[in-house]
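Quick check before the chapter quiz. The format below is the same one you will see on the exam, so make sure you can read both the input and the output lines.
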Amino acid sequence: MSQPLISLQLYTLRDALKTNPMETLERVAAIGYAGIETGLDNSPEFLGKARELGLPITGAHLSLAALQGDLEPLIAKCQAMDTRFAILSYVDESQRGSAQNWQRLGKNLENAGAKLHEAGITLCYHNHAFEFEILDGKYGLDWLYGSAGAQYLQAELDTYWIQKGGASPVEYLKKYAGRVPLLHIKDMTPDGDFAEVGEGILDWPAIFASAEAQGVTSYIVEQDVCPGDPFDSIAKSMENLRKMDKIL
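Here is the expected output.
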């Protein structure tokens, strides 16, 4: 089984991207990342620089609004990025709060995912902690995935947010085996804050074993909040992943 690609979600470096996006990409490549995850809107110059540096775009994060209405602009942007994954990164409170809301969202995402599938793009959903509210006996996340076919809605599970929500990343990887092509890898301090991969309390050997057994193709490092320079944090995560033999 091939080793999953190690990518970086560029939200971690959002401030640096605003001031010098090209230098930011150069530093990401120099640290050793083999791909990037970004938003939907990128300039041709940015995409050209990523290609020059050998940083394929693992996936494009997007809003629910981008999935509503005409999907052709979204498809065109994904194709310009040469990415196979479009990822719904967040839903506001109006879309959650009840089992029925999660089921309705699942059906809507299934419909959008079917159209994206025809264009060779896979729709994924990225979780936070709020999906782990129990509603009518089940987590919201399970109502969502139970309402949509796996072919048209897959998962970008997030290790930190699963743990924060009170569930087990290992068990959720097992539960949705074959449905998780992308995995956000984030660690957690004993106090529940964000930490560099390998610097917190998550059980990485068990997480990686479960992920690789069920077919994850890309690990995406993201640290929503860093204690100091975000470049130091992404370098520390890469250093620890190298020690864990997770670098291609």
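If your answer matched, good. The first helix runs from residue 14 to 19.
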